[in-house]
Known about the structure:
Elements: H1 4-12, E1 26-35, E2 42-51, E3 62-69, E4 75-80, E5 85-87, E6 93-96, E7 99-102, E8 105-109, E9 113-119, E10 147-159, E11 161-164, E12 167-170, E13 175-183, E14 189-195, E15 205-215, E16 218-229, E17 232-237, E18 243-249, E19 253-260, E20 263-270, E21 275-280, E22 285-302, E23 308-323, H2 325-330
Antiparallel strand pairs: 1-2, 1-13, 2-3, 3-4, 5-6, 6-7, 7-8, 8-9, 9-10, 9-11, 10-13, 11-12, 14-15, 14-23, 15-16, 16-17, 18-19, 19-20, 20-22, 21-22, 22-23
Amino acid sequence: xxxxxxFVQGVMHPEAFHGTxxxxxxxxxxxxxxxxxxxxxxxxxxxxxxxxQRSSSPDQNQAFIQVLDGLTGRSWFHKFNTDxxxxxxxxxxxxxxxxxxxxxxADLDLPQLRGQVRYTSPLDPWPVTLRExxxxxxxxxxxxxxxxxxxVSFGHSLGGVLEIEGNQVDLSxxxxxxxxxxxxxxxxxxxxxxxxxxEGAPDASLVASVAIIPWLASSFRGFIIGFKHSGKLNRWAxxxxxxxxxxxxxxxxxxxxxxxPDGTLEIRAARVRGGLLHAPLRSAMYQRVEETLDAVxxxxxxxxxxxxxxEGRGTSAGLEVFGDIQKLLGSRT
Length: 333
């Protein structure tokens, strides 16, 4: 059983590895987005580890690196033995086979991607304090949560050269993004979106999610949004008293409107087809989540006095809509 000290260290270091000593019912993965300067190359690389229930097949225990081509929607799942996985408990440092990932970049040795990605500006994480330990707020201090989330970097500049399916691509001037999840299982239903390519605002970055959250013997619907622009992180979350005015999900769009301490946020995200990624359930990693890096997010941020702080489009956006959406919509309060 994890000690209190180890749990608190994990809370204060969401970017680090949380699975030391957890030999069953655990997953952890880092979502690393790589976009070239002209946005013609859009890739997500997801290193991680999965350990199933003791009653499940030992073959389900695995390290992995997933790859998503955001331009074509193709995806690959590269499986490794768990002994090929190594990660630090106090910082972002992951090694799987010949692939390494850390705060300075990534060295990749995969059939689709080979070479070096370098981060030429510092990572920009969601602030972590004891009062608000990262994106999850005080929920991040609750050990019984089935899934934890962290933002390792809202955005950073890229450099280096990648061999992408045999072609050399210079990443100079590109932009990256990193977030992660860990715990026992993904939610049964959720919407997630993220972009850090907003027109007229090169420093802007959005991450937004709403999900059905297991809670004791029941569940509730929780949401978290961070929109960073003009040097300020604006938050809309269940834990800070923000309220939803609208959430609608149809075959073509996700439309969302919220109000909170940082004003009003209006979102309209276009749904497009993507590639299938594996996601953790309690017994195995299942290929079930359709994700795109080709979505467009129309966004407006309005101050409490009615003035428009930002209005524009986010491109090369990640978008997932998964699971029991009717329950997700029906659980609004």
